[in-house]
């Protein structure tokens, strides 16, 4: 069954079952691998993308249910210079880097909703898992990005 | 011993194509026959080089260790580029394949810098000296007057200078300096070593371009998911794949032969479902019907295992270190303090699950994996498919975390077996459930500690028995006693100034694959030792734990384990002459942490500070955790202060990052971590029932104070973790009066009464 999907402004017609999670359509069918698999049960947030600007965990979202435009890390900014990406670089946040694309997508969506987040806001929204333990730097980078946006 | 030779020059001598004549320095650690076959000048494609310089002056440095978040690709390049006097902006870093010609590539044991600091400086210096000599020859001046400076060689008296690119061809014709002729830069002239150089992969990471093992895609690649026996050493009795094959996208089903003992890094065996995408493979797998012969571990049950280990810890065991007269110290009227500690199995759970791509062809094979040692990957794959390792190319990708899990390339073997069976490239991706349920688990440990206490409150005797399944059980079937090195990770090297010491181990069978995990046995040894120090101080009525700890460490000295009857102390694979157990350095980090934290054991109601100090991987760390325990028992960690003496540091920012991360990693294990089994089957599945720290749980603030030192470099990736759990539990005790002796902490009721 052909499903129409807009990813990073580009239209894709994908021939997959509608129950296939968006994550695997993005990674295996469209071939954008910046969006990561971490748990498959929407626990860790490594698969976070935007649907019409709202952060969603794509590992549990059937592609047939996707109605809005999808933005992945590859489509966040043309030159990798979104203020959140720049703040991540300024604080040298990543260690292994695997979860960081999901963290960045979650942070961007949060800052759109809450431009000046409190620590409690950050704790409540930034529930993505980082096993390297970069949380202190993520918090600092969000503060820097909030100033810049 | 360093051996460097000028590969480009040798190429010319052998009459091979001279190519562009660029300067290439290779490490002749083994016969490098392949190097000879490669035209000189095409060096970016020759894997046996650490340094190469193109005619345009572009410098390519090989990273032969795996990057898993510790920043090693950056740090190794900093060392080479510094001695080379290269301009960092003109350096690119390439990842080396797994190949013996690099020397060992085991990226574990916190030893990449320890083992390569001097060696890579020499490689960089040799290249620099040859460029200087090339310049001197072309200008007809004394080489001693030519000095490499930031990608140029300069002749000060005449004002002449030449870019490295202009000199590359001429330098390629020169002989490599003899090792004794190498002149390393003075420490004061270091350009990159000791500086917080930014991660070379940062740009790719924040834009999603970084390629991890799970991201590799090759033309014609299939995707596989493997159903494995839920019990270790179980076998497929029969299976029915008819329903699996009906799932759209599923193409084939392949049986992987059962693992045999010793399990080593072999594929576990099972049924692989091959499909056109990862999800279809997983869906097909759910529809497999497999009958298992569960094998010898089907009776494994965690609570009975714990009782057995704890009971063993109360009985005499194998003596690993004996000093003084312990029996006499426990005299009739002696005050005795004793306690038992428990630490369960943990699993690594790196964010990137194990994943590998293999393309096995008729005569050769290629594999890509997120592995901590490309050479182990190469050998494991070669064995799995019955091919000579020289015909296997093992590519190392970025690792999305590893923590020891990816030292074991069983997932690479699975991909290779499936690829061989289907005659096409295939990617095997583990699910998170596979990762949690089929891991190489950190050993569970029961420990019993007993001390005789003198009138001054300090111990006169320390008896400690540690019982845990050996990591060696994966290499020697049925091994029940730990090897000496396992005990040397944090027990036999007990640094305290106690006249009578008896350290023992007991037997424990392994019923799961036991594997090294970040900090390894130091995790449970430091937990017991540093908790017990706090218990001794409490028993002595000593409120100032810092002062008590310093008295226990005693005067600055080198602990002589040979004199204490310990034969061949492992010392993290280094000599004690170069890396002594130095109690002066241990004292120093304790004092520094206390000063920076503003040590105050009870800063407020239900608030407490705890301290722990531990030397591991040749580095000294003291950690002070501040904990706040809410009346409902919820623990918050507002602040952690660490003092770290890792000797000479290559990249202080990455060292800080490792220490910060080690706290949160250790916190996850101490607080939540627990793998249990019933009927041989691991009971946890995913992050819902194997929780790990999130932003809201993690320490709010972590301060890392690095000791300025010109000592030899120590390890960095692991030593930050061991002191954390005991410091946290000591803080909880200070805040609540409740002693946590059994991990994870979540099982202890910390509610206000």
Question: What would you note in describing this structure?
Answer:
The complex is a heterodimer of chains A (149) and B (753). Chain A is an alpha+beta fold and 149 residues long. Chain A has 2 domains: 2-75, Roll (Ubiquitin-like (UB roll)), CATH 3.10.20; 83-148, [2Fe-2S]-binding domain (DNA polymerase, domain 1, Orthogonal Bundle), CATH 1.10.150. Chain A contains 5 helices and 5 strands; from the N terminus they run E-E-H-E-E-E-H-H-H-H. In chain A, strand 1 (2-7) and strand 2 form a beta hairpin. In chain A, helix 2 (83-90) crosses helix 5. The longest helix of chain A has 14 residues, at 100-113. The model of chain A has no long low-confidence stretch (mean pLDDT 97). The termini of chain B are far apart. Helix content of chain B is 27%, strand content 22%. Residues 1-5, 7-21 and 26-48 of chain B have low confidence and may be disordered. Chain B has 3 domains: 4-193, Aldehyde oxidase/xanthine dehydrogenase, molybdopterin binding domain (Aldehyde Oxidoreductase, domain 4); 220-296 and 371-429, Alpha-Beta Complex (Aldehyde Oxidoreductase, domain 3), CATH 3.90.1170.50; 302-346 and 440-747, Aldehyde Oxidoreductase, domain 4 (2-Layer Sandwich). Chain B contains 18 helices and 28 strands. In chain B, strand 3 (49-53) and strand 4 form a beta hairpin. Chain B is of the alpha+beta class.
């Amino acid at each position: 069954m052909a499903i129409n999907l807009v990813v990073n402004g580009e239209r894709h017609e994908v021939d997959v079952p509608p129950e296939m999670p968006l994550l695997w359509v993005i990674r295996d069918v469209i071939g954008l691998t910046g969006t990561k698999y971490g748990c498959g049960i929407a626990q860790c947030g490594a698969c976070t993308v935007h649907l019409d600007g709202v952060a969603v965990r794509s590992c549990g979202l059937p592609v047939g249910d996707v109605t809005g435009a999808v933005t992945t890390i590859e489509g966040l900014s043309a030159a990798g210079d979104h203020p959140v990406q720049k703040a991540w670089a300024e604080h040298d946040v990543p260690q292994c880097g695997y979860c960081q694309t999901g963290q960045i997508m979650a942070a961007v969506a949060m800052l759109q909703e809450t431009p000046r987040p409190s620590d409690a806001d950050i704790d409540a929204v930034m529930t993505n898992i980082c096993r390297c333990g970069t949380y202190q730097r993520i918090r600092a980078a969000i503060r820097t990005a909030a100033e810049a946006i | 011993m360093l051996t460097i030779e000028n590969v480009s020059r040798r190429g010319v001598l052998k009459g091979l194509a001279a190519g562009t004549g660029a300067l290439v320095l290779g490490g002749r650690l083994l016969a490098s026959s392949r190097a000879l076959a490669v035209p000189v000048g095409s060096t970016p494609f020759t894997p046996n080089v650490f340094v190469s310089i193109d005619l345009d002056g572009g410098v390519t440095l090989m990273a032969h260790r795996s990057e898993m978040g510790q920043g090693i690709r950056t740090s190794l390049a900093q060392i080479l580029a510094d001695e080379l006097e290269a301009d960092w902006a003109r350096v690119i870093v390439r990842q080396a394949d797994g190949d013996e010609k690099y020397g060992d590539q085991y990226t574990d044991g916190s030893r990449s810098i320890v083992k390569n600091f001097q060696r890579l400086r020499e490689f960089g210096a040799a290249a620099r000296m040859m460029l200087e000599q090339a310049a001197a020859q072309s200008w007809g001046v004394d080489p001693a007057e030519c000095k490499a400076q930031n990608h140029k060689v300069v002749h000060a008296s005449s004002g002449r200078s030449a870019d490295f690119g202009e000199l590359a061809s001429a330098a390629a014709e020169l002989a490599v300096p003899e090792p004794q002729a190498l002149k390393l830069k003075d420490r004061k002239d270091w350009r990159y070593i000791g500086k917080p150089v930014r991660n070379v992969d940062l740009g790719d990471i924040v834009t999603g371009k970084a390629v991890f093992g799970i991201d590799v895609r090759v033309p014609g690649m299939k995707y596989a998911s493997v159903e494995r026996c839920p019990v270790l050493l179980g076998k497929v009795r029969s299976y029915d794949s008819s329903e699996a094959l009906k799932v759209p996208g599923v193409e084939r089903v392949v049986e992987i032969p059962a693992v045999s003992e010793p399990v080593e890094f072999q594929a576990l065996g099972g049924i692989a479902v091959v499909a056109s995408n990862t999800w279809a493979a997983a869906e097909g797998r759910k529809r497999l019907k497999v009958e298992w012969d569960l094998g010898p571990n089907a009776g494994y049950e965690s609570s009975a295992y714990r009782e057995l280990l704890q009971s063993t810890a109360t009985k005499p065991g194998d003596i690993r270190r004996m000093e003084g007269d312990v029996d006499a110290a426990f005299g009739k009227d002696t005050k005795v303090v004793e306690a038992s500690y428990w630490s369960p199995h943990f699993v690594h759970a790196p964010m990137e699950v194990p994943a590998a791509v293999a393309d096995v062809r008729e005569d050769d094979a290629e594999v890509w994996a997120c592995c901590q040692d490309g050479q182990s990957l190469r050998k494991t794959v070669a064995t799995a498919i019955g091919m000579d390792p020289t015909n296997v190319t093992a590519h190392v990708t970025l690792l999305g975390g590893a923590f020891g899990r990816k030292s074991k390339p069983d997932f690479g073997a699975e991909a290779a077996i499936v690829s061989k069976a289907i005659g096409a490239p295939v990617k095997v991706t583990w699910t998170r459930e596979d990762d949690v349920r089929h891991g190489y688990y950190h050993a569970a440990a029961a420990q019993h500690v007993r001390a005789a206490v003198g009138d001054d409150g300090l111990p006169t005797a320390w008896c400690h028995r540690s019982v845990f399944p050996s990591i060696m059980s994966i290499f020697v079937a049925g091994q029940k006693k730990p090897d000496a090195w396992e005990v040397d990770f944090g027990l036999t090297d007990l640094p305290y100034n106690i006249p009578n010491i008896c350290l023992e181990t007991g037997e424990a069978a392994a019923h799961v694959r036991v594997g090294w995990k970040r900090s390894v046995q130091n995790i449970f040894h430091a937990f017991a030792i540093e908790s017990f120090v706090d218990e001794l101080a409490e028993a002595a009525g000593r409120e100032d734990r810092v002062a008590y700890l310093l008295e226990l460490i005693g005067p600055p000295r080198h602990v002589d384990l040979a004199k204490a009857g310990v034969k061949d102390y492992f010392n993290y694979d280094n000599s004690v002459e170069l890396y002594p157990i130095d109690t002066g350095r241990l004292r120093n980090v304790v004092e520094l942490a206390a000063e920076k934290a503003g040590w105050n054991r009870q800063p407020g109601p239900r608030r407490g500070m705890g301290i722990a100090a531990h030397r591991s991987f040749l580095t000294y760390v003291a950690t002070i955790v501040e904990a706040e325990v809410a009346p409902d028992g919820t623990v918050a960690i507002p602040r952690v202060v660490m003092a770290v003496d890792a000797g000479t540091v290559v990249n202080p920012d990455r060292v800080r990052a490792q220490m910060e991360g080690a706290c949160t990693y250790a916190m996850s294990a101490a607080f939540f971590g627990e793998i249990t089994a019933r009927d041989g089957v691991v009971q946890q599945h995913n992050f819902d029932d194997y929780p790990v720290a999130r932003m809201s749980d993690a320490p709010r603030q972590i301060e890392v104070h690095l000791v300025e030192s010109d000592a030899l470099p120590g390890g960095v990736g692991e030593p930050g973790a061991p002191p954390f759990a005991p410091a946290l539990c000591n803080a909880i005790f200070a805040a609540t009066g409740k002693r946590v002796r059994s991990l994870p902490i979540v099982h202890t009721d910390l509610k206000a009464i």
